[in-house]
Amino acid sequence: GAVVSQHPSWVICKSGTSVKIECRSLDFQATTMFWYRQFPKQSLMLMATSNEGSKATYEQGVEKDKFLINHASLTLSTLTVTSAHPEDSSFYICSASPYRRAWVNTEAFFGQGTRLTVV
Amino acid sequence: AQKITQTQPGMFVQEKEAVTLDCTYDTSDPSYGLFWYKQPSSGEMIFLIYQGSYDQQNATEGRYSLNFQKARKSANLVISASQLGDSAMYFCATSEGGSEKLVFGKGTKLTVNP
């Protein structure tokens, strides 16, 4: 399958600092990438849709000023958690789809995820 | 809005036996996709199998098969000949036609016993 690489795999930061997470599609171009958040023992919740060359689309309840998304190229999207606080500690994971049928998505490949701990 | 329900928080199976993980969905769009992912303790999401709403046959990928019952809005995952390495969280997800967004169920933790 297609490869999506996410970096870093884990990060510990101090409260009040910002953290940048990268998501790269290694062997395909992705005009759209997705950022999910997963709390321990819970499901993945979509945070935002990252659109190449335009503003990200955020899901209801997600603070766009706190979770900055930049999709500057067809293979890279970044999520920056600004002024991080302990409640932002979570598992963040991105996904992208390399191809689709005429009317419906067929596969979405995920990065390895980033475990963020804010102390 | 789409909704995915996984009613089994945890399942146990003996090695080499088959196991079925339940998933029901609710969507108003006639075009949709159904996905199953495996998430081991390391956290990565591993794509297992996909079923399109217009697909006539049940999807199969190696030891994985999807029991698609459209009228019941059911998309159960069947794992045959379970292996110890199959122990993980399993998530069912759906996307509606034209969208690449996925909506996930709460997951089922599968434990394979030797």
Q: What does this 3D model show about the protein?
A:
The complex is a heterodimer of chains A (119) and B (114). Helices cover 0% and strands 50% of the residues of chain A. Chain A has no helices and eleven strands. In chain A, the strands form two sheets. In chain A, strands 2, 4, 5, 6, 9, 10 and 11 form a seven-stranded mixed sheet that branches. In chain A, strands 1-3-8-7 form a four-stranded antiparallel sheet, with no helix packed on it. In chain B, strands 2, 5, 6, 10, 11 and 12 form a six-stranded mixed sheet that branches. A four-stranded antiparallel sheet of chain B has the order 3-9-8-7, with no helix packed on it. Chain B is globular and about 40 Å long. In chain B, 36% of the residues are buried. The chains are: A mainly beta (119), B mainly beta (114). Chain A binds chain B through residues 1, 32, 34, 42-46, 49, 91, 93, 95, 97, 100-101, 103-113, 115, and chain B through 31-33, 35, 37, 42-47, 50, 52-53, 91, 95, 97-107.
Blueprint of the fold:
The complex is a heterodimer of chains A (119) and B (114).
Chain A: E1 4-7, E2 10-13, E3 19-25, E4 32-38, E5 44-51, E6 57-58, E7 67-73, E8 76-81, E9 90-96, E10 109-110, E11 114-118
Parallel strand pairs in A: 2-11
Antiparallel strand pairs in A: 1-3, 3-8, 4-5, 4-9, 5-6, 7-8, 9-10, 9-11
Chain B: E1 3-5, E2 10-14, E3 19-21, E4 24-26, E5 32-39, E6 46-52, E7 60-61, E8 64-69, E9 74-79, E10 88-96, E11 103-104, E12 108-113
Parallel strand pairs in B: 2-12
Antiparallel strand pairs in B: 1-4, 3-9, 5-6, 5-10, 7-8, 8-9, 10-11, 10-12
